[in-house]
Design goal:
Helices cover 75% and strands 0% of the residues. It is built from 4 helices and no strands.
């Protein structure tokens, strides 16, 4: 999700550097990621407390997964991409050369 937004923002923000584009992209996806995590967490908490002993451990594992997934989506993905040196050139589509690019399907 974050990387899709990064790719879109690299196309929109032509003068920004990698850090600036990554920061904008994470900020744009932050509210959506948190809202998705919270709504899923509400259901899992209901399963955890009302689901009985059989589903208790499964709901707990999913609750932990929500926290880990949300954290990695927000903080780890962008930082890891910057550490790997992702630039605008890495995320742009490859241009086809010659007559093949002009022909349609």
């Amino acid at each position: 999700m974050v990387f899709d937004r990064v790719r879109e923002n690299f196309r929109k923000i032509r003068k920004g550097g990698s850090e600036q584009v990554m920061n904008i992209s994470v900020n744009e996806t932050l509210s959506r990621t948190i809202m998705t995590g919270v709504t899923t967490l509400l259901v899992l908490l209901a399963l955890f407390f009302l689901g009985g002993e059989v589903i208790h451990a499964f709901a707990l594992a999913l609750i932990i997964g929500i926290f880990v997934g949300t954290y990695s989506s927000i903080y780890v993905a962008g930082a890891l991409a910057l550490l790997l040196g992702v630039s605008k050139a890495d995320l742009m589509p490859v241009q086809k050369e010659g007559a093949e690019a002009d022909e349609g399907p």
